[in-house]
Amino acid sequence: MSVPYQIKSIEQYQADYKKSIEEPEAFWASIAEHFVWKRKCLPAGEAGKNVLNWNFKEPKIEWFAGATLNITENCIDRHLADKGEQAAIIWEPNHPDERVRVVTYNRLHKRVCQFAQVLKNNGVKKGDRVCIYMGMVPELAYAVLGCARIGAIHSVIFGGFSAQSIADRLEDAQAEFIVTCDGAYRGDKVIPLKSVIDDALIGNKVVKKVIVYTRTRTPVSMLKGRDIWWEDEMDHAETQLEQQGGIHFPAEEMDAEDPLFILYTSGSTGKPKGVVHTSAGYMLWTNYTFLNVFQYKPGQIHFCTADIGWITGHSYIVYGPLSAGATSLMFEGVPTFPDAGRFWDIVDKHQVNILYTAPTAIRSLMSFGLEPLQGKDLSSLKVLGTVGEPINEEAWNWYDENIGKKKCPIVDTWWQTETGGCLISNLAGITPSRPGWATLPMPGISPKLVDENGNDSPEDEDGLTKGNLVIDKPWPGILRTTWGDHERCRTNYFATYENLYFTGDGAIKDENGFYRITGRVDDVLNVSGHRIGTAEVENAINMHSGVVESAVVGYPHEIKGQGIYAFVIDNNLHGDEELTRKDILQTVSRVIGPIAKPDKIQFVKGLPKTRSGKIMRRILRKIAEGETENLGDTTTLLDPNVVDEIKNGKL
Ligand code: PRX
User: Fold this and answer.
1) 616 and which of 164, 607, 608, 609 could share a cystine (Cβ 3.0–4.6 Å)?
2) DSSP assigned state of 216
C-alpha cells in the first residue's frame, strides 16, 4: 500500500512545500489523519484549526495539543493485522558467527507489552524518567518502546559516556529507574555497563530500581532490593499477562504534547542539556521524513548504522521506521570488526536496501582501500544516506562509486538532536543531489541565513548567500524545552535572534536555493559526528590536579572530521609531560567518556587573552589548523609574546 503523503516527483515536492509553508496547519492535519489517535484533536471537517499554537518568544510550541495517542500503537499495534509476521527489527550481533535475531511485529508487540508490565510492576508511572544505558541489543528497543507504552519518559545515554556523565544526567532528570546490561560487546571489547552504572549511583538517593539485561555475562554486583534481572522480570510479567488473558498491555493515553523522551546533548556551555521531544509532533516528523527522504518502499530493509544512544538512532532505527511499518536493521558492533568489510557483509547477508551512515565511517572505511569490498554483493542497495557532519567530496564520490555503484541516490541529511528529524536533505531519487550539499528544505521548514545582527544575509555576485542558519517557523519535530530549565531552552535557541530558532550552524545557499552546511559557528565541536562542547572538555581537563588552565578548539581531522586540540597550562609539579598528558586523558575519560579525549595536548606557558581576560580562541583555532601567518587582529592581546611561544610549540 503506498502512503499518500510520500512525495513522488519534484513537482509534488514543490507543491507540498508551498502548501506546508502557506497553510501549515491544514498540511499537517491532513497527514495526521493517517495515524492512530485515541482522541482526535479536531472535529471532522475542521482540519486546520488549532493544530498549532506557538510563539518563539517564550518559546511555546504545541502541535495537536489536546489530542491523545500512544506512539507505540502507531509503531506496533497498527501493523499487526497485515504485518504481524514481517520483521520489525533484524538484529545483527557484534560477532558475525553469533545468531541473527529477527523480531517480527508480533514479537515486538509481545516483548514491549511484557516490558511495560515489568515497569509497572516496579512502580514506574506515566511521566517518570527512566534512564536507559544499554548496548545495541533488541532489548534496548523494547525498553525504549516499553517506556513509551506506559507513558514514562525515556532518557537513553550512549554506552560510551562515563559514570560521572551518567550521574549528572540522572540528577538533572531526577530519574528513579535505570535499565542497563551487564556488559556490551563493541568489536573485541567488552564494556562493563552495569559496573559503570554502579559507579554513577554512588551517593545517588533517587534511583529505586536498576533492571539488568544479561548480554555478556560479565560478573556484576546486584544490590538486594535495588538491582533486578531483566529475564526474571520478563518471565514473571509474561505469566501475569497470560493469566489476565493474553500478552497485551494497554497503551497509556498520552497528550500529543506529553514528553516522550529526553536526550542530552552538548552546547556551548559546560553542562549538557536535556532536549525534550513530545509524542505526536515527533512521531509525525520522524515518520514523514523517513518515508520521504529515504523513499522507503514496503518490504525494504533499512540499515541505519547509528547507536540508539544518539538522536539518529532514536529517529531512524526506532520511531521513524517502525511508525512506517518498515524493517529496521539494528547492528550491535563496529564497522571494523572483525574486519573493515563488516558493513558490506551485512548489506550482502541481509540484502539491505537503504544504508544510512556517517561521513566519519565512510572516510574510515575508505582508508582500508577496496579489498574489503571484494566478493560482497551490494546490488540490493537502492538508497544511501549520510548524517552528522559535512561530507567532503572525496568521501561522497567514494561512497557513490564503490558502494552505490553510481546507481543509488545519496541523501545528505542535515539535522540536529533538537530538530527531531531531517530538516534539509534531498529526497532520494526525487530531488537532485549535489556532493557536499544538503540541498533543499523539507516541507514545513523555512530556513533563512542571517548575519550576526539577525539581518538577512545578502546574495553576493556569484549568487551565493552566506550566514548563520535560522528557521523562522516551528515544524512538528522541533524541541519543546530543555528538561527542568525552560529558560535555558530560550536563551540557547530562541534568544540570539528575535523570533527565530538558531541552529548554531553556518551555511551557504546557492541561486537554486540549495543549502550547504559549513559547520558550527558556536563553541561546539563535531568529532566523528558526535557533538562535544569545548567548555565541557575544558571543565574536564581543568579537574586534573596538575592543570592550571586550558583552552580547547577543533582542528581538521582526516577521519573524524574534527579533532580535539587542547592547550594546557600545567603546574609543572611532576616534570614529566608525557605522564601528565596521560593523566589528563584519563581524567577526561572519567569525567565525560573516551569520546571526548583530546587528540592533541600542547603544554603552554600562557594563553592568548584580551585585556579583560577572555581567551582568544580564534587565534588558537588558527594555530591548531596549522595557520601561522594570518592570525587576524592581535592588537587586543594582553601579551602578544604568548602567541609566538604557542606557534613554536605546535604539535
Ligand atoms: O553541525 C551540524 C552537524 O551536526 C550537528 C547536530 O549534531 P547532533 O545534534 O549530534 O545530531 C547529529 C545527527 C542529526 C549540526 O548542528 N550536522 C548534522 N548533519 C549534518 C551536519 N553537518 C553537515 N551536514 C550534515 N548532513
Assistant:
1) 608
2) S
**Is residue 1 assigned to a domain?**
no
Compute the distance from residue 212 Cα to the ligand 1 centre, in Å.
32
Q: Which of residues 207, 234, 262 is at a domain's end? A: 262
Sign of the alpha-carbon torsion through 626, 631, 634, 640: positive
Report which ligand 1 atom has the smallest distance to the Cα of 517: 23
In angstroms, what is the span from residue 518 Cα to ligand 1's centroid? 10
Atom of ligand 1 minimally distant from the CA of 412? 26
Residue 616: which domain range?
A: 524-648
Q: Pick from 242, 262, 282: which residue ends a domain?
A: 262
Which atom number of ligand 1 is nearest to the Cα of residue 530? 10
Q: Is residue 57 part of a domain?
A: no
| 488 CA distance to ligand 1 middle (Å) | 21
Which tens digit of pLDDT belongs to each residue from 180-223?
999 999 999 999 999 999 999 999 999 999 999 999 999 999 99
Nearest CA, atom 7, ligand 1:
416
Q: What is the pLDDT of residues 516-569, one digit of tens each?
A: 999 999 999 999 989 999 999 999 999 999 999 999 999 999 999 999 999 999
Whole-prediction pTM? 0.96
Beta-carbon neighbour count of residue 258 at 10 Å?
20
Sign of CA dihedral 331, 334, 339, 341: positive
